[in-house]
Amino acid sequence: MTKGTNSSSFAIELGVVEVRDLVVRGIHGLLPSERLTPQDFSISLKMRLSIQDAALYDDISGTVDYSLAATIVEEIVQGMSFDLVERLGYVIALTLMERFDTILSIWVLVKKLRPPMPSDLAYVGVEVTLNRNGESD
After folding, report:
1. pLDDT at 135
2. pTM of the shown model
3. 34 bridge partner residues
4. What's the domain range around 45?
5. First and final CA of the chain: distance in angstroms?
6. How many domains does the chain divide into?
7. For residue 62, which of 12, 7, 129, 131 has the smallest C-alpha distance?
8. I need a labelling partner for 43 at 20 to 30 A (CA). Which of 60, 74, 94, 124 fits?
9. How many CB atoms lie within 10 A of CB 121?
């Protein structure tokens, strides 16, 4: 099959565009020490949308530009500051839903890597899911 051809008789419905483990430094947390020194956060995204035009016609306008999505996430994590990772995850999800009207639902995982806790933890994290227009998964 060449670019721009559609010889398939299969229907393309929904796809998931994924960004996994984007590591960004930011200042987020409740403790005074967390408010002074940037920490590493790992952000993962799953964006559900129709990928039909992208798949059939090799057209970026029919999907989510994951490079742009990653840049938006970096700008939020680096440029804003929140007490809670729940708020950070929500702002990321909401901003991406507003920027890309093709996204039907988004799942965001925010991990605070090596959090300042007495326990030896790889990370603490939160998952946030938003759906457009009351759709459910």
Report:
1. 56
2. 0.88
3. none
4. 15-134
5. 32
6. 1
7. 12
8. 60
9. 12
